[in-house]
Design goal:
By secondary structure, the protein is an alpha+beta fold. The protein is built from eleven helices and ten strands. The model has no long low-confidence stretch (mean pLDDT 97).
Length: 362
């Protein structure tokens, strides 16, 4: 388990308090039912930005707090508990990381302060098929223009800055594209978890390259993967706690169902898996903060373990709640749907098991 500093503990407690008061699961339900075009609550996002959460991994000279990836993970974990929909992962973590790692001083000076204050939403546009495959890129960058298609772009409809992977003269790299460019066409996607996403078509859109090529791309993706894993951890923990509370009050055959040994064993399995998952997620975030050479394998390990755990816990949540767990009136379905969407984001378990094995030389 990570040993938190006093500042990190205070940050976690502040986020937890805000989430419980301002963004319970009922807020996600309300947003879904309203068919919001943004797929997140703008007032809640403005609150997050004002509290500095969008600038946690951004250097101080560019308007952030440079508080590190473990700190960002703590925020995402608490947001995950109530399934809070926001651009924090896409903009404040993934896109901000791309600019921090590969941006020129001019690019950083222009975009990072806007991302930190929440006035600009940025996102990564990486995948071109139904599965995460960052090395399979047909989008091209030629003479300052991007041409190609990207799919399942998180916050793709809300973003005003797109960071796109494309093939250039030196191989695959990342490029900055303004979303309002006439060469950009966006189509909204409706996802099971009610989050914002879109398909994006580029027809000669003006683009600026970021430095570092494929090496930068991999580092950026690992930061996004670790962030998703942290959010999944929070969601899985909350799903488990809700289920555990239900086992203590639901009576069947004249007994509280939590007294049944079979259900106790299943609850114990979830508890131990969650403890292991926390260790893996925090190890990955800490490795990124220290620029450890083992960061890539730890990230893939964390994403795999967290995917398996959240999958299990969300299934058990529905099953142990019985009939009510299968209705839209209960929150269990929201956690199950989020688990399936988060598993696929930036690589599912199969992708990361294969990647982990390759990193270790198998």
């Amino acid at each position: 388990m990570a040993v938190l500093s006093e500042e990190q503990s205070m940050l976690r407690d502040a986020v937890r308090s805000w989430v419980q008061e301002k963004s319970p699961v009922t807020a996600l339900r309300k947003m879904r039912d309203s068919a919001s075009e943004l797929c997140y609550d703008l007032a809640a996002w403005n609150d997050m930005a004002q509290m500095g959460w969008a600038g946690v991994i951004i250097p101080e000279e560019y308007g952030g707090s440079d508080f590190g990836y473990l700190s960002m993970g703590l925020i995402l974990e608490e947001l995950g508990r109530t399934l809070t929909a926001s651009p924090l992962l896409a903009s404040g973590l993934a896109a901000a990381s791309a600019l921090v790692l590969g941006g020129s001083h001019t690019q950083k000076s222009l975009w990072l302060p806007q991302i930190a204050e929440g006035s600009t939403i940025a996102t990564l546009a990486i995948d071109e098929g139904s599965r995460h495959a960052p090395d399979k890129v047909s989008t091209t960058f030629i003479a300052g223009k991007i041409t190609g298609n990207k799919t399942f772009v998180l916050e793709g409809m809300a973003a005003s800055l797109l960071i796109v992977s494309a093939k250039g003269a030196d191989g695959i790299g990342l490029y900055l594209v303004k979303a309002n460019d006439p060469g950009v066409k966006r189509t909204k996607l409706s996802l099971a978890d009610s989050r914002g996403a879109g398909d994006i078509e580029f027809n000669g859109a003006a683009a600026e390259p970021l430095a570092g090529g494929e090496a930068t791309l991999e580092k950026v993706l690992d930061r996004a993967r670790a962030g998703v894993a942290a959010e999944m951890l929070g969601s899985a923990l909350q799903a488990f706690e809700i289920t555990l509370d239900y086992l203590k009050v639901r009576v069947q055959f004249g007994q509280v169902i939590g007294s049944f040994q079979a259900l106790q064993h299943r609850a114990a399995k979830m508890f131990t898996d969650l403890e292991l998952s926390r260790s893996a997620v925090e190890a990955a975030l800490a490795a990124i903060d220290t620029d450890s050479p083992e960061a890539a394998q730890l990230v893939s390990l964390a994403k795999t373990i967290m995917g398996d755990t959240f999958h299990l816990v969300s299934n058990e949540m529905v099953q142990m709640h019985g009939g009510i767990g299968m209705t839209d009136a209960h929150d269990a379905g929201f956690y199950l749907k989020r688990a399936r969407a988060a598993e696929a984001a930036f690589g599912n378990q199969a992708f990361h098991r294969d990647r982990y094995a390759k990193i270790l030389g198998y």
